[in-house]
Amino acid sequence: MPVAPKATLLNRPVAAAVIGCGGMGRHHIQALATLPAVQLVGISDIFAPNLERGGNEVNLPAAQRYLDYNQLLDEAKPDFVVIATQAPQHAELTIAAAQRGIHVLCEKPLALNLVEADSMVAACEANGVLLATNHLRRVTPASTTGRNMIAAGAIGEILAVDIHDKGGRPVGNTLMEMATHYFDEARFLLSHYVQSDGHRADEVEWLFSRLTTGLGAAAHPATATEIVNSQVAKPTDRDCGLVVGERGTVVIGLAGGVQAVARFHNLPHADARYDGVDVIGTKGALGVRGGMVKHLFQRQGHTFADHDRWNPVTIEGYDAYFAQTDGPASHYLCQQMALELIAAIEEGRQHVASGYEGIMSLELLMATYQSHIANAPVTLPLVERRHPLELWKQGVLA
Ligand SMILES: NC(=O)c1ccc[n+]([C@@H]2O[C@H](COP(=O)([O-])OP(=O)(O)OC[C@H]3O[C@@H](n4cnc5c(N)ncnc54)[C@H](O)[C@@H]3O)[C@@H](O)[C@H]2O)c1
After folding, report:
1. Which CATH architecture has domain 14-137?
2. pTM
3. Which of 160, 161, 202, 216 has the fewest CB within 10 Å, making it most exposed?
4. Which of 27, 44, 45, 185 to mutate to test the pocket of ligand 1 (most atoms within 8 A of CB)?
């Protein structure tokens, strides 16, 4: 599925900018620089070597490289901006762009807590701009094909969802860095399936969780005294705020009695082939697995018998696309996210990975902590918007 150039209402390429030129920012820069519908008008990073490397890789003129993001927004005047810094800066940068009437595609997790995320959505609403969350799985062919097959009844009536973590991180870090994807992907796969009572199957009703520290005799439920910053829990990781626990299980209650179960084992090494979501139905199951390049599998039954084995589902054009492109899968997916944003702006509708969907994922992460602290299920939407671990640490929650 080649990326087609797109005519726009503006009758000119859409002006785009990227703030944050680290690992993910460079994928966005390269994706946008090679997208005919878009003109990359500027990039920004406070760290000069990253700014230079990001700009050099696409031959961006020096005048379009900014150390100060405010200057970028004011001078380059992009129609939309990609925010690819780590989570602590997402709210400030999104609000700065929204206040200038600039649409935003923000990296995941949307923010560090729901207070920040709510303020991002409010700023975008108040200024009439769209907010999208870079949950790439919503434009991944394996996921969209899976969603359509589920909606068409390929696996019968939906019974349950199994979420598989790729490992390599303690549970707190995984929640903020990876479960934001997993929870969103699970809801996305169900999003076109309508329950017999008329409810969309991606509606979340409640969540129950248990996080633990230690194994064997040392094992215990994670405690408030074990709350640390993510980079203390795992020094090589990104800053995603407060975290707690090593392993955990989360059960999400969805509309129509469907339960999604996510288990976080803190496997010693990450393996993207394990990463994915299985949707279980009365007539079999569909599973989406893999890192950036995802694959879709189907099985007809639920036993280990030969006829119930997982089989790959061929997605027309998908493998051919990756065979012919030079760019990695992330470039293709970042381009799809940008094209979807342009289409949403033109059509006056929400992005498939809207800020509202981003908030829902963050809400599930915060609900995971709330439920663990309360040792009870919590209902959604959450009334308390402050970070549960901050409140637990302060002794406000017990
Ligand atoms: N969607 C995905 O699949 C995916 C994959 C990987 C990472 N991510 C997300 O992308 C984000 C960035 O991750 P990363 O690994 O690229 O981080 P990184 O640390 O490599 O890059 C972040 C960059 O932002 C810059 N920065 C910080 N504050 C800034 C500011 N005020 N103005 C301009 N630049 C600023 C830093 O100097 C750094 O170069 C994170 O939120 C991460 O979770 C998403």
Report:
1. 3-Layer(aba) Sandwich (3.40)
2. 0.95
3. 216
4. 45
